[in-house]
Amino acid sequence: MAAAAGTTGSAESTGTVKPTVAHVIRQAITSGEFAPNQRLVEAELSQQFGVSRAAVRNALVQLTTEGLVEHIPNRGARVRAVSLAEAIEITEVRMALEGLCAAKAAERATDEDRVELREIGARMQEAVATGDVFGYSDLNRQLHSRILAMSGQNTACAVLERLHGQNVRHQFRLAMHPGRPHVSLPQHLAVIEALCTADPAAAESAMRAHLHSVIETLPEVDKSRPSRP
């Protein structure tokens, strides 16, 4: 990651555009590398990613406006922790936007898309049957990401990317909640079926039903979280 964030060399010489410092830090937050409430020290980030402290400072300002980072007086920046109430609100917004994207994806799906979706569905079934929770969680992310890409709704996708970063910790705990894969699997399969039969209304309804289930489960997941000593 450090090399990706570096400022030496040019995009023209490599033929690629290097990600910004904000992008690299954002990825570290959304991937769980940086945990909620973790301090983000400019000097440490500068050394880790091979960029100037000024570049890090500007990136943290940008991520603060996105809701991923917060500044605490006399303590500096840290990864912002999202409350249960806010996690529910975020999922309500997801329900509207991902429902829209599912409908768009059903309209635009190609034969190749349908083959890929059914393959993901089959692998999800196998993961649940074998108790592969982490594999199922990864396939879950793949499915949602693929649907967004298929939708072609770039504005909704941009909003959802930001929301994912804010809600990543709650989503991880939800994925690890006992019995959750058995509940969400038929919901995901319903979404896939609607997409593969080119039924926009059914795809939107199935996606909204799935995320409504997430909203109902989040309080249960939060209660099961170990309390701080």
Cross-sheet strand order for the largest sheet: 1-3-2
Number of helices: 11
Would you identify the regions where 5 or more consecutive residues have pLDDT less than 50?
1-16
How many distinct folded domains? 2
CATH topology of the largest domain: Four Helix Bundle (Hemerythrin (Met), subunit A)
Number of DSSP strand runs: 3
* Rg of Cα set: 19 Å
Order of helices and strands: HHHEHHEEHHHHHH
Question: How does CATH name the architecture of the largest domain?
Answer: Up-down Bundle
Q: Sheet bearing the most strands, described?
A: 3 strands, antiparallel
How far the N terminus sits from the C terminus, by CA atoms, comes to 34 Å
Tell me the strand percentage band.
under 5%
**Alpha-beta classification:** mainly alpha
